[in-house]
Amino acid sequence: MNKNNQPLRLQLDLYRSYIPISYEEMEVGFCTPEFASKIVETFNEHEQLIEDNDALHKAFKLVCLDLIKKSGGNPKEVNKLHNLMKQYMEKAKRPEHGSRAIVYLLRERKEQLGISNREFIRFCYSYKLPPKELKDIFSGKEVNDQHLKCISRILGKSIEDLIEIRDGFSHSEINMLARILGTSNEELNQLFHN
Which positions ≥6 away from 32 have C-beta within 8 Å? Predict the structure, then answer.
């Protein structure tokens, strides 16, 4: 459907060649060879990411097993560490929302400027964010609206963008909420963004 809720018409150029697209042994559409190569490239990248993710997960499990053995623990305990491994994996990911996401943006800004920690503290203070409050933010305390005014100038982002980052939901939180409510992620996203 287009913007006016009218059905889209199939448009074919008689002078171009088209390749059928199959999914699970069913033809689902046609596209030009250029788009077909992009689709194949995207799927290959996706498969490689899945393989890399599996390899990292196995490596992480092996590290845990080695640490248990070296500390004199029982190697069978490695399976009990599965939840702990998930927690570490979540911590290692770039946070999408919350105060941690704001801290990540501040760290990125410091790296962009190429300055030391001391210089960054002075830089933030020049935008009216006192060193004590900056330290509190980096130690995990909540970022309040007053902080956002200063941080928006430091980062060069609007206060509204920062509020959305601070107050939004992460994908895992949306997934959990969708399961609890018996709805889809898309429906929840529409609810929160309307």
Answer: 16, 17, 18, 19
